[in-house]
Amino acid sequence: MAWFYLIVAGLLEVVWAYAMKLSDGFSRPVPSAITIGAMIASFTLLALAMRSLPLGTAYTIWTGIGAVGAFALGVIALGEQASLARLLAAALILSGLVLMKLSSPG
């Protein structure tokens, strides 16, 4: 169950990062509320995952899902640049996440 919590927490990190961008510096109420709600849910699920997963593994996977997910969403939804260097960087982060998962107990 810890891995499920961790993956959902990482996906919620993408949600709150995107909603924060849409909040325009917390000046728009609905995206601001989504940001805060998704942050609370993400941190809660991360805390639950950390009950049985090592700190280094849980935090690395959580931030990695958030980083790669936010990058992908920025490219797809916001038209941000998808240069070869940025794609390679995202691929390296993703490969690190896979290696972290494969090398972790549980």
Automatic annotation (TrEMBL):
Quick check: keyword Repeat in the entry? no
The protein's matches in InterPro entries, at most eight in alphabetical order, are given as: EmrE-like, Small_drug/metabolite_transptr, Small_multidrug_res
The places in or outside the cell where this protein is found are: Cell membrane
- Residue intervals passing through the bilayer: 33-50, 57-78, 84-102
According to its UniProt record, where is this protein mainly located? membrane
- List the GO molecular function terms: transmembrane transporter activity
User: Is the keyword Cell cycle in the record?
Assistant: no
The UniProt entry's sequence similarity note says:
Belongs to the drug/metabolite transporter (DMT) superfamily. Small multidrug resistance (SMR) (TC 2.A.7.1) family. Gdx/SugE subfamily.
**PANTHER family in the record:** GUANIDINIUM EXPORTER (PTHR30561:SF0), SMR FAMILY PROTON-DEPENDENT DRUG EFFLUX TRANSPORTER SUGE (PTHR30561)
Q: What is this protein called?
A: Guanidinium exporter
Organism (species): Novosphingobium fluoreni
